[in-house]
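Note to self: keep these together.
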Amino acid sequence: MEKLVTLIPLFPLAGFLCIIFFGKTLSKSLIGGIASGAILLSFIASILVFTTQIHGAQPTVVKAFDWIHAGGLDIDISFLVDPLSSIYLLFITGVGFLIHMYSTGYMHEDEGFNRFMAYLNLFVFFMLILVLGSSFVTMFIGWEGVGVCSFMLIGFWYKDMKNNDAAKKAFVINRIGDLGLILGMCLIFSNAGSLNFSELFIEGSSGLSMPRDIATTAAILLFIGAMGKSAQIPLHTWLPDAMAGPTPVSALIHAATMVTAGIYMVARCNGLFASSAAASEIVAWTGMLTALMGATIALTQNDIKKVLAYSTVSQLGLMFLALGLGAYSTAVFHVITHAFFKALLFLGSGSVIHGMGGEQDIRRMGGLKSHMRITHLTFLIGTIAISGIFPFAGFFSKDQIVAVAFEENKVFFILSLIVSACTAFYMFRLYFLTFHGKFRGTHEQEHHLHESPKSMTIPLVVLAVLSIVGGFIGLPHAIGHDMGMHWHWLDHYLADTLLMPTSLMHSGTEIALMLVATIVAVGAIYFAWNIYKKKGQLALEDKAITSSTHRLLAAKYFIDELYTAVIQKPLDALSHFFNSVFEHKIIDGLIQSIQWSVTSTGDLLRKAHTGKLYMYILITVFGLILLLTQL
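Structure:
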C-alpha cells in the first residue's frame, strides 16, 4: 500500500511535467489523454487504498523522504492514510478525472490548451498533497500550492485585465487567511511541541495538551485560514470573482479541490475544535451567516456562473455550521454530495455557455431544453439534488445538517430552513430562465445553439448518476433501519477518525424534520415555477430594478464597495502620500542634498588646484610647519 499512496500524487505531477516539457511536440488529443489519464490512474490507486480502509486497516503514515530536522522540529514529507483522507482522495480524483475529460472538449480550441491541462494536473497534485499530508507543514505545502494554481487558472485568460484582477484578488485574500493558519501552527508547535497529526490528534481525539485559552486561540487562528480558503465572511469575496477563469476551473475549485480544503482542515483538527466551545460557536455562526448571505445574494444574480458561485458560498456555510455544531462527519457528507451536484451544475453551465457561444447572462437565454437535451436533463438533476428533494443526494446530506441544527440550536434550525428555501428558489429560477420559455438571445446565438460533444456530455451523465445515488452512503436512521441497512455508512466509516454525536435522534422526529424540509423546498420550487414558468416573468434588467432590497442583493450587500472605501482607498491614499511626499520630497531630497554637498565640497577644493608651482610649495611648507609644531 505504501507505494500506492506515494503514486497517488505522483501521477498528476508526472502528467504536469510531461506536458510542460514536451507539450509543444504533442497533439492536443495526446495531451488531453495524458492529463486525464494521470488523474484516472490516481483515482484507481485511491480506490485500492480506500478498500484497505474499508477492511479495517489502521491509520498509516507513509514516509516519502526526510526534510527538516532542526532543534526540536522534526518534519518529514510523509502521508497519512486514514478514513478521512481516503474518502477525500476518492472524490478529488474521481470528480477531478471527469472535469479533466470535460476540459478536453471545452478547451480544445483554446490556444493555451497545453498550459491549461498542465495547470489542472498541478492543481490536483497539490490538493492531494494537502489531504494526504501527515503534518500541518506538509498540508501547508498543498494548501499554498492550490492557492498558486488557482491564481494561474483564474487568470488563465490573462490578456483580459478583469481576469488578472480576479486572480490577484483571490491570491491576496487567501494570503490574509493563510497568515492566520501560520500563526495557529506556530502557536500549536510552541505549546504542543509537534506539528504531526499522528502525535496531535490521532492518538486520542483531543490529544493537544495545552491550556484551554491557548487551544481556543489556536483553533480560531486555524479557522481564519479556513475562512480564506473556503470563502467564509468576511474573506468570501474572491470566490464569485473567480468565475473569470474557464468553467472547468470553476468546477474544480468549487466542487473537488480548493474550497473544500478549509472543511478538511477543521475536520482533521476536530479534537482541537471540540475542546473549545468558543471557537466552535464562532465557526457555527460564521458558517450560518455566510450561508444566509450567499443564498440571498444568489436570488438576484443573472450571470449563470455567479448564481452557482454564491450557491457554493452558501453551501460551504452550511458545512461550517455542521462543523461548529460538532457534526464533523455530517459536514464531510455534504462535501461529498456537493462535489457531485456542484460539479454537475458548473459543467452543465459550461455546456450552456459553450452552446450559447460564450453568453453567460440568463436574461439572454431561454428555451434551451429543446436544443440541448442531455445538458437540460442533467442540469435538472443537479438542480433537484441541491434543492434537497428525495431521493437525490442533497436531500440526505443537507437535511442532516438541518436536523443537527434542530437538536443544537433552534435559531440555526430556522435560518437553515430559510437557506434551504432560498436554495431551491434560486436554483429553479436559474433552471426555468435558462431552459424554458422563449429564446431571448440574438438570432446568431440561436443559430449557434447545439449540444456539447461527448467528451463534455459523458461527464455530465456520470455526475448526474452520482447526484442521484450519492446520498445513500448516509441514510438517516429512520430510513436505513426500515430498509434493514446500516443507518449511516459514512458515520460508521469515519467513527474512528472524527468525533461523533453521543445520541441518535428519535425516528419520529427525524421523519418529521425530513417532511418539514421537503415541504419548504417544494414550496420554494412551486413559487419559482409560478413566477418564471407559469407567468413567464423574466429577470429584471439592471436599470429596471426599483426595490431597495433587490438592489441591495443585486449589489451583493455592497461588501466589495465597502472594502474599496474602507481598505483600498485609504491604502491608495497612503501609497500616494509615500510616493509623492515621502519618496520624492524626503528620500529624493536627502539623496539630492548629499549630492549637493559632495558637489559643493568638490567645487571648493577645486579652487586650491591652481596649477602654480609656488602655491604648492607654499602649502607644503605650511603643512610641514604645522606638523613640526604638533610634534
